[in-house]
Design a protein that fits this description.
Blueprint: H1 2-7, E1 11-19, E2 31-38, E3 43-49, E4 59-62, E5 67-71, E6 74-78, E7 88-91, H2 99-116, H3 124-143, E8 147-148
Antiparallel strand pairs: 1-2, 1-8, 2-3, 4-5, 5-6, 6-7
Length: about 160
Amino acid sequence: DGFRWMLGTEAASVSCRTHTSPAIRCRGETDALAQIAFANGAGAQLIESFSSPVSRTETVVIGEEGVLVLNYQGALLFDPEHRKEPKERWDNPYSGGDKPESAYRCLEELLAAVEEGRAPTNSGEDNLKTVALLEGAYRSAETGQGVPFRPGGLL
């Protein structure tokens, strides 16, 4: 859903591979690699591992004019003239000890939408598209084939 939100478009197809690592004791897959093609021509790649002893969460958005690096601490903007040090830096006000507050912002938005009689920004209809993307990824991992989506981001 984060990629869909950032790119302002829906998935056109997804390809995924999963793996269950013997490095940790668990049921189900511990590692995944998903590649998503979007309706506007953009692409995204997600790599996730629960078996790695190294904990790192980072999103890198490579654009035509620069690169945006997002993590729990904030965001960094790089461009061709600023390759080693960011051109701009934004701190995440919810990092560190304030992170639990961010968990309640979605609930606050939902309650405000109910009170105001409008759809919440993170609606159930929108979440169905995220669930469809997850279902497509699991289907792809099972079959070894890419999974296309109908226009609008549903299977």
